[in-house]
Amino acid sequence: MKLLQQLFEAVRPTFETGGRLGVLKPIYEAMENFFFAPSATAPTAPYARDPLDLKRLMSAVIIALVPCLFAAFYFFGLRLIAMLIVSYAAGGAVEVTFAIIRKEQINEGFLVTGMLFPLILPPTLPLWMVAVGVAFGVLVGKELFGGTGRNIFNPAIVGRCFLALAYPAAMSGNWISAGEGFTGRFFQYVGTSDINAITTATPLVLAKQGSLVALPDMFLGKISGSIGETSAIAILAGGVFLLYTRVANWRTVVSILASFALLAGIFHHANPERFAPVLWHLCAGGLLFGAFFMATDPVTSPVSNAGKWLYGIIIGVITLLIRNFTGYVEGVMFAILLANIIAPILDEIVFSVRIRRLASEG
Amino acid sequence: MLHGRPERAVKVLPEPDVLYLPLRSQRFGFSEVCVNDGQRVDAGDILAHDPDNYAVPLLAPRAGIARLKTTQNHIVLEDIGHLEEHADMSEEELSHIVQEMGTAGIKRYKLLALGAWQFFYDAYTGALPDPLGTPQAIIVSTLSLEPFVARGDAQLHGRLLNFTRGLEQLQSLLEYQPIYLIMPDIKSAFASQVREQIRGYAWVKLIEIPLKYPYDNFNILVRTLGLKKNAGPVWAVRTEGVLAVDRALTLTKPCLVRIISIGGPAVKSPVHLKAMPGYPIREIIDAFGPTAESRIINGGLLTGETIASNTLGLDVECRGLTVVPELKDRQFLGFMRPGWNRQSHSRCFLSSLRKNFRERLTTAMCGELRPCISCNFCEEVCPAGIMPHRIHKYLYRDLLEEADQSRVDLCIHCGLCSFVCPSKIELRKQFAEAQLLIEEEKKESQQELAQEKNA
Q: Chain A closest CA to B159's CA: distance in Å?
C-alpha cells in the first residue's frame, strides 16, 4: 500500500499538465483516486463533509447488481463475462476519450452503465454488437449532451434502443433457454452457434401466442429473456438494497409498480381471456429491472418528488399499453425513454408551482 | 453522537497576562479607536467604536495599558489588572443622555454602551438592529444547535433568576409587542420552572422547537412564527444576550465575559469556558487540545470561519472554538470500506445499521468535485425550503435573475446542503456570493431609477 502510494507520487510529474504524458492526466487521476481517498480538504464551511461521494454511490448500485449477476451466470453461463469485458472496454474508451478531450476527470457513472448494459441484452448477442451498442449509448446518450449530469436519456437504454432498431433480428430472435440443475450454466459458454440451447420465445412472446409461463419459474428466473432481467427475486433483493441505501428513490419505483399493477389489474378483471394476471405481468420482461435500476437513475429522472410520482406513473402506464396493444412484445425500454423526455417538463411544472409559493415567503 | 461535543460544565480560564482584542469580528469592524497608544484604561472603558453599526463599542475586558501598534488589527492590553470593573455611569453623563434621548432612550443607551447590544440580531438579516428602533417582536432563543458551539443550557445553568429578570428588562423596552421564548421542550422540568418564574407575564409566549439543527436559526424561527417582514424588524437574542441585558440594565455593569465552548473532534476534553474577548487563542488551544494537526474554527463546524494565523485573541462575537483534525492518511480503497462509524445522510455505510456511535470527523472532502447528478439530497435537508440543486444550475450558467426568482435570498447558510452533496459542490459559498451580487445589482438599479427621477 505504501509502495503503491510512493509509485503514484513518483510518476505524478509525468502526468501533470506540461509533463511528458500530460494528456493522460484524467487516467492518472482516476487511478490514483480509485486506490486512495482524495487528499482534498474542505476549503470553506462546513468543515466536515458527508463521506458519501459518487464512487460510493455508484459502487452501491454495483453491489445491488450482484444478485442479478449471480442469477445471470447461473441461467445463461459464462458468456456474460465476455460481454461485460467488451462493454466496459468499448464504453470506457469513449468515456476516457471525452475526458481527455474536455480535460476533465473521468466520471464514475460509466462503471454503472458498463455493467447495466450487458444485463439488458439477449444472451447470445454477437460481441461486436455489444461494443457498438454501448459505444453508441455513451456517445449519443451521454457525452453529446455534455457528460455526466447533463444527459437527458439513460445511456444504457439509448444503446439498447439503437441495437433494437438497427439489428432487430439479433435483438429478438435468439433466446437461449435458462440453465437448470445444481450448477446451471455456471461452467458453460453458450454462444450463438449452440443451436441446441436456443429456443425462440420469451414469456411475453409466448403470451402473445396465448400460453402463459408458470409464475414460480418467472419469479426465480428460469425463463428465457435478457440476461439480467429474468430473475424477479434477484432484482428484488438488489432493488430493496438500493432503496434502503437511498441511492434509488422509492417514489419512482413505487409509482411505476403501483400504476402498472393497478392498470394491469383493471385490464385482467375486464377481460381475463385476453390480458394476463397482475403478478405475471410484474415478473415478465424487463419491468422490475427497469423500475429498480433504469428509471431510478437520478440524472434522467425528475428531481422533484412530485415529478417522480408522475414520472413513475407515466412509465407504468406506457409499458402496459405497449405490451398489450402494440406489435411490440416489451415496452419498458420505450416507456423509460419517453418518460426521460418528459422528466424535465414535469420538473418545470413542479418547480414553477413551488417558486410561486416561495415568492410570498418573507 | 458527535465526538467532541462540549460538556455542560463551565470552566473558568486563568486570568490572562495579555489580551489581544481583534478589531474585526463577523459583523463589526471597530475602526474608530478611542484610546491612545500607551494609555491606561479601566475595565469597561470604550476602546473603539464601529461607525457603521450604531457606534457599537469595543470594551476593555480588564484594566491595563493599551498598545495600538504592537500587533496589526488588534488592540493589545498589557499589564492586566485584576480589577473586576469600574463604577456605574457618572451622574452627569446620565443626565446628558436624558436630555438627548429622553428617559426611554436611557435604557437603550445603557445596552449599547455597556456591551449588551452586540448580542442582538435582526432576525431577517442577521445584522445589528437599530437600538432606537421598535421591533414587532423579540425572539429569545435558549437553543444553540449547531455542533460544537456554546449551548444555551450550559449558559443558563444556575442563572434562571438573572434570565427571567433579563426577560422583564427586555419587555420594558417594548410597548405591547410580544416576546417569543424558544425552548426545546416546553413540558420539561426546566420549562415549568421558567413558567413559574414568569407567571403572569402575558407578553412572553413559550414556543417549542425540535432539537434539530438548524431550527434555532433566527431566519427559520421568524418564518415558523409567521412574522412578516413588512410589519417591522424582529429582534432576536440568545440566552447570553438576555443575561447581558440583565447585567446592563439591572446592575448597570458592563458585559465583559462570555461563555464560549471549546469543542470538536480534536479536543481532548471539550467543555464550556468563561472567557473574555481578547483572550489568547493559543493558550486555550494549548490547554484543551488538539491531539494532532488540526484546523481551528471560530464558531461551529457548519458555519464557522477558519481563524487566520494572524488573529491572536477571541473576538467579541465568538461563540465557540471548534477544532477539527486535518486529514492525515489517505484511505486505501476508501470507497469500498464498510464505513462502520461514518455519519452520512444516505445509508450507503454500515453505520446506518447502528444507532449510536462516536464519529471522528476530519476536514477531508471525502470525494472529488463532480457535476450535479440531481440526487435531491440537498433539497431534502434544506430547512429554508428552497431548491439548492436548481439554484446551483442557474448560477453555473450565470443566470442571476433566475437564481433570484428561485429565492436564493432565503438561504440561511446553514451548510447542510454542502455537507450532504455527494458531488462535493460548494453550495453554501456559491449562494452567499450570489446573494451579495444580487443585492448589489438591486441597489444599483434602484440608484439608477432615483437618478432618472431626479433628472
A: 32
Contact B415 A147 (CB under 8 A): no
Read out DSSP for A270-339? H-TTTS--HHHHHHSTTHHHIIIIITT-TTTS-SSHHHHHHHHHHHHHHHHHHHHHSS-S--HHHHHHHH
- Nearest CB among A1, A34, A298 relative to B373 is that of A298
In chain B, the N- to C-terminal Cα span, in Å, equals 63
CB pairs under 8 A between A and B: 206
- Looking at chain B from residue 201 to 220, which residues have their Cβ under 8 Å from any Cβ of chain A? 219
For the entire predicted model, the pTM comes to 0.88
**B259/B249 Cα distance (integer angstroms):** 19
Whether residue B235 has pLDDT greater than 70: yes
A86, HSE (Cβ side, Cα atoms, 13 Å): 19
The answer to whether the Cβ–Cβ distance between B365 and A38 falls below 8 Å is: yes
**What stretch of H or E contains A33?**
helix A25-35
- Contact state of A53 with B422 under an 8 Å Cβ cutoff: yes
A112 within 8 A of A95, measured Cβ to Cβ: no
B91 by Cβ neighbours in 10 Å (0-12 / 13-18 / 19+) ranks as exposed
Choose among B35, B30, B98, B110: nearest CA to B66. B35
DSSP class of residue A196 equals G
Overall size of chain A counted in residues: 362
Q: Does residue B70 sit at the A interface (CB-CB below 8 Å)?
A: no
What would the pLDDT profile of A196-255 be if each residue is shown by its tens digit? Answer: 666 667 888 877 777 788 888 888 888 888 888 889 999 999 999 999 988 999 999 999
Task: Provide, as residue numbers in chain A, all residues whose Cβ is less than 8 Å from the Cβ of B362.
Answer: 41, 48
Give mean pLDDT, residues A16-32: 75
Report d(CA A228, CA B5) in Å as an integer: 48
Mutation to test the B interface, candidates A5, A35, A49, A244, most B Cβ within 10 Å: A49
Q: Is B136 on the interface with A (CB under 8 A)?
A: no
**Grid cell in block for residue A189:** 459458454
ipTM of the complex model: 0.87
Helices and strands counted in chain B (H then E):
12, 18
Instruction: For residue range A276-290, list pLDDT tens digits in order.
Output: 888 988 988 889 999
* CB-CB under 8 Å, A359 with B387: no
For cell 456570493, what's the residue?
Answer: B433
Interchain proximity B368–A38, CB inside 8 Å: yes
Cell of A181: 440443475
Biggest CA–CA distance in chain A, Å, is 72
What is the C-alpha to C-alpha distance for residues B242 and B240, in angstroms, rounded to an integer? 6
Q: Testing the interface with A: which of B5, B213, B374 to mutate, by most A Cβ within 10 A?
A: B374
**Contact (CB, 8 A) for B297 and B306:** yes
SS3 label, residue A63: helix
What is the radius of gyration, based on Cα positions, of chain A?
A: 22
Asked whether A319 and A287 are in contact (CB, 8 A), the reply is yes
